[in-house]
Design brief:
Structural class: alpha+beta
CATH topology of the largest domain: Fumarylacetoacetate hydrolase, domain 2
Radius of gyration: 20 Å
Number of strands: 14
Number of helices: 9
Strand content: 25-35%
Shape: globular
Bound molecules: hexanedioic acid, magnesium ion
Helix content: 25-40%
Order of helices and strands: EHEEHHHHEHEEHEHEEEHEEEE
Length: 335
């Protein structure tokens, strides 16, 4: 299949840039009579508010092939860029295929570069019709940090396509090895822009709080990764359920908000909101300050998943998994 690559530079207006990316993808798909989903759009911020857009067909590599003398490992190593890492992860997600950690082959993948890979993935999703609807925090609780052997929280982006309707079973055909974890979820009433955000400032910007159940699905084999790998993988994001009960956080002590997780009727874990950085508001402040370091902020209307309170449990066919909170109600998920 031919490789098609074009580059353009657009400025400032984010909506125009997004529309332009969609147009480029659609034009390539139409021209080649290929499905839109097979067109991979890569976008680089080459200077503030100016983007270079390139497209390839997903099944082809834009990277020149190595001379035959190069070993496979060397060949792979020289290929790694923000764009190829993003494509690698997007392909793994689309094909429901586990991959080995990128840092094994690209040890230079550091945390700032990993966030650029994450941003490239989100731009690709937006180019294919997703809308960013908020932010998630990962690894905010000791239970999750201990399990993954990583002691630093991270942020990622959630999109509308990840939102799962309560009552609709988890589609196991869509994921690689999904797990689920209870979360305290905020809807923002006001913008929240770091740096210097404290938990009190953060909570003052929250409109309502709800129960959440996040489906995570690392693209890495056995959920095995280093911090840059999981940042690049958009923090294993896959789906999220939001509970039907909305509460004003001013009336609740979220550090004491308890949850009970059951699998097929049996209690498998419990926690309180204090598990998340001492208080979910601390996690929200952490997200705002961390995003600010990369030039982003949390917007009014955004949904914020503050991080799993307990370790995540695997979702197996036939399971009924529930979380019950003290004041935020329950979510029951089947598979
Ligand atoms: O939401 C999360 O805490 C996921 C963060 C990434 C680590 C994992 O896959 O558990
Ligand atoms: Mg989570």
């Amino acid at each position: 299949m031919p490789i098609v690559q074009i580059s353009i530079v657009k400025g400032r207006d984010r909506d125009k840039v997004t529309q332009c990316i969609k147009n480029v993808a659609q034009t390539i798909a139409t021209t080649l009579d290929a499905p839109l989903a097979s067109v991979r759009v890569m976008v680089n911020e080459i200077e503030p508010d100016h983007f270079a857009v390139g497209t390839t067909l997903k099944s082809e590599s834009v990277v020149p092939t190595q001379p035959p003398s190069a070993s496979p490992a060397e060949a792979r190593r020289t290929e790694w860029t923000i764009e190829t890492a993003a494509c690698h992860l997007l392909d793994a997600e689309a094909e429901r295929r586990e991959i080995t950690r990128i840092t094994d082959e690209w040890p230079e993948l550091d945390i700032p570069t990993a966030y650029h890979v994450q941003e490239a993935i989100i731009r690709d999703k937006v180019a294919h019709g997703d809308t960013a609807v908020g932010v998630k925090l990962g690894l905010t609780s000791r239970a999750k940090q201990k399990r993954m052997g990583i002691d630093s929280p991270l942020t990622a982006v959630i999109t509308d396509r990840m939102h799962l309707e309560t009552g609709v079973p988890v589609d196991l055909e869509r994921f690689i090895h999904p797990r689920i974890e209870p979360e305290i979820v905020f809807t923002m009433a006001e913008d929240l822009r770091g740096p210097g955000i404290t938990a009190d400032i953060a909570m003052a910007a929250v409109g309502e709080v709800r129960a959440g159940f996040e489906v995570i699905d690392s693209r890495y084999q056995n959920f095995s990764f280093a911090l840059p790998d999981v940042i690049a993988d958009n923090a294993s994001s896959a789906g999220f359920y939001i509970g039907g009960i909305a509460r004003d956080p001013a009336g609740l002590d979220l550090a004491l908000e308890a949850c009970v997780v059951r699998v097929n009727g049996e209690v498998v874990d419990t926690a309180t909101g204090a598990a998340v950085q001492g208080h979910p508001g601390e996690a929200l402040a952490l997200a705002a300050n961390s995003l600010a370091a990369r030039g982003h902020y949390i917007k009014a209307g955004d949904t914020v998943l503050t991080g799993g309170l307990t370790d995540a449990v695997f979702i197996n066919a036939g399971d009924e998994i529930s979380v019950q909170f003290t004041n935020l109600g329950s979510i029951v998920v089947t598979a």
